[in-house]
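Run log // design_07
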């Protein structure tokens, strides 16, 4: 498991965790606004994707959005590997 000390530097560090596990789209937008400009946004997003975190808003992205990003990363990685095999 990766180091999680970065969590102490997030915009959410003093907010209730429930805010980041919304039950509707309006809640997702609230969480995403808090994430805007977060100093550890990229680390948070990578953490959630690499650890297959299925629920909540992480790195300013919803579950659905993270699945899309993860898919794009896999496609990108495969195409890089294919180019290397040429
Ligand atoms: S990106 Fe969002 S969820 Fe992640 S640490 Fe920052 S404020 Fe918290």
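design_07 sequence
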């Amino acid at each position: 498991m990766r180091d999680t000390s970065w969590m102490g530097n997030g915009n959410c560090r003093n907010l209730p965790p429930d805010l980041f596990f919304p039950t509707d789209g309006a809640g997702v937008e609230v969480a995403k606004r808090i994430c805007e400009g977060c100093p550890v946004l990229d680390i948070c997003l990578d953490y959630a994707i690499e650890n297959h975190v299925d629920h909540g808003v992480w790195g300013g992205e919803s579950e659905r959005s993270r699945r899309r990003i993860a898919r794009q990363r896999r496609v990108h990685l495969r195409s890089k590997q294919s180019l290397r095999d040429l």
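The CA atoms of residues 12 and 34 lie 7 Å apart.
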